Amino acid sequence: MKFLIVLALIAAVSADLKPLSKEQADEVRHAWDKVKHNEVEILHEIFKAHPDIQNKFPQFAGKDLEQIKSNSDFSTHATRIVSFITENLSLAGNPDLLPAIKTRVNEMGQNHRNRGVTKEQFNEFRSTLTDYVKHHSSLDGDAEHAWNQAFDNVFFIIFSNLDGHPVV
Ligand code: HEM
To answer: Ranges for the Globin domain (predicted)?
Structure first.
């Protein structure tokens, strides 16, 4: 029994937020800087790999990806997603700004919960985005570790919201 309690405590601690150090945040920003202007290409890669994500968007569902890719609706949404990442990364690595990140990500998680987006879809998104950054920028060693830590944190907040509990 004691053993189970210890295991449960370890699980609870390891599932918590691990904010990035300033150095880690700089490494992630450095990798992200090289791709952050490829908004349309990034969303295109995500929809191509995961049509179930595309189909969650009423304005894109069932449409030919190669055609919608050049619409202004598409680039507007691509810019929203990519800017969300850029803005949160600009706050990372500074403990004073952690509450601001939590507020934004809680809000985004709540909005996406209301849209019925699943954890599986978020994981699909993460995996395609990470592959994209690996292929178009430099992401290995410490930078890759920091990137994964950043996404573990953001996804911890999003998933808590999908479960109905904002992170305080
Ligand atoms: C993984 C599956 C996802 C699905 C199915 C999804 C779906 C949607 C939909 C349907 C909208 C509304 C679009 C509109 O009103 O034009 C939206 C808005 C938005 N999405 Fe996503 N999304 C996903 C992941 C993400 C991720 C990972 C990010 C950020 C990194 C993101 C950032 C945003 C932002 C910033 C908005 C606009 C503000 C808002 O309404 O929250 N989304 N998303």
So the answer is: 19-163
Q: Is residue 5 part of a domain?
A: no
Percent of the chain with pLDDT over 70: 91
Give the total number of structural domains in the chain. Answer: 1
Chain position carrying tokens 């911890």: 156
pLDDT band at 16 (very low <50, low <70, confident <90, very high): confident
Measured from the Cα of 82, ligand 1's closest atom is 30
39: domain range?
19-162
Residues with CB under 6 A from ligand 1: 53, 56-57, 77, 80-81, 84-85, 108, 111-112, 115, 117, 121-122, 125
Does the residue 11 lie in any domain? no
- Residue 3: inside a domain: no
Residue whose CA is closest, atom 5 of ligand 1? 53
Q: How far is the CA of 27 from the centre of ligand 1 (A)?
A: 25
Res 71: pLDDT: 96
What CATH number is given to the structural domain containing 54? Answer: 1.10.490.10
Mutate-to-test residue for ligand 1 from 28, 32, 80, highest number of ligand atoms within 8 A of CB: 80
